[in-house]
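thread: overnight batch results

M.L. [08:02]
morning all. the overnight job finished for the chain we discussed friday. pasting input first so we're all looking at the same thing
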Amino acid sequence: MKIYISTLVALLVAGLFTSAQAPADLILVNGKIWTVNPAQPEAEAAGCRDGRILAVGASAEIRKYAGASTQIIDLEGRRVVPGFNDSHVHFHDGGRGLAGVQLRDARTPEEFRDRIKAFAARIPKGRWITEGNWDHENWTPARLPTRQLIDAVTPDNPVFINRLDGHMCLANSLALKLAGITRETPDPPGGAIVRDERGEPTGVLKDAAMNAVYRAIPPPSEEEIAEALRAAMRYAAENGVTSVQDMSASPEILAVYQQLLARNELTVRVSGHQPLSRWEGLARVGVRAGFGNDKLKIGALKGFADGSLGSTTALFFAPYLDDPKTRGLPSDEMVDESRMLSNVLGADKAGLQIAIHAIGDRANQQILDLFAEVVKRNGARDRRFRIEHAQHLRQEEIKRFAEERVIASMQPYHAIDDGRWAENRIGAERAKGTYAFRSLLDAGAVLAFGSDWFVAPMEPMLGIYGAVTRRTIDGKRPQGWVPEQKISVAEAVRAYTWGSAYASFDEKIKGTIEAGKLADFAVLSDDILTINPVRIDKARVVMTIFDGRVVYRR
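M.L. [08:03]
and the structure it wrote out:
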């Protein structure tokens, strides 16, 4: 027995030694690697094997890991950062939208109509026209579209196209008919049917009112979902995004993610969020936060407290300046606050992670209060509550994010988009707490950055540019909108990498470039840490490395 044990130990030691001396699969040299690791912020090179980082250091040192079959990439002085982790996307919807009608930059109602007309002419009769991402704030005057604008050009196709924030959609008359919406249909809790002066639906539906039409739309097939996810993955790779936190990962979409994983087609790591209302089904089968592997996992939930600023459904303490009759709308989940509390209490007790969408200052205060009550009842632990967007905050709520360890999952592109028109709705004083990146960091909160794609571009360069400059996309605020909330490039990169990893309990395996972590990198065209920040939006990703292999070259 002693001989056997000695032999076994010798073999194990020999195996470990051999493994330690095995060559790298991939080596990056002659670069400027920003590691986001405070113990070693800068490096020239990194070596990778089996999808993990072997070592980080000087080029001469890392070259020692090369073997006959090692791929060596000369970075030629380019800046490298960890693969970006988008903390808030709607991945399938975004992918599907890439193949749909494109309305985001339609500058007039007439251009909006004509693009829909041209798209309808290319598809079969009876097929739904969805997505679109229109923005009436591009128009002068900024009036909402109506079904009458598009009915004549879509007589044979039901239309249900969303505003870019996803909280308001336009239906044509055919879609309203299929959904059974008439002038007699009441507004549902948490939603609104926009009506004309005669009480007739205009075709615009807000938040929970959209559900009736969604129920009338035929579900996509598995192959259609797969096509959308593949398109989304290509777009992610083009922008250095190697991880996403999918806020709309329904069971049907998760099933296709699993198929792509089994076929080794995934080129992003996915953390899937299910609706908060489904927590009992997950808990019943034993799913907990982080269930899965480093490429696909579930166990997180998403709920809603309110709507959006663009749709005047974000929930505020004070009325909207441009619509004094409303302070916004609670979501259908928050109409009965006791039900929302019950859901969060149960889900948290079951070990699931919870993220809640909150835009308006009142909605953020309500969710912070709700989270505090859950901690009081269920006890302290590392649960990582998240507020998605955390868009409009009063000073008293800002400090609570750090004190109560609530993650602010934010999308900086929204700041330079909304900044064009937000003060028309909420005024300059309330705007001081809008996308309060600087104040949240100074208070000690964790920021996790993302895009909210399909709502905004899934392009981290634009997000970093937005967080650092706050220059609105119309060019009218060159010094930045609410400039006191600017942060540094290094802070923005950290929020897009380590911060997002922390938000999904993944900071031990990704988010920084250091030995032992997953080999995900983004190679940039420009050194965003040293160039004039106003040029960051022109920087591009020239190479994306996922799991130790190149998945994109520009």
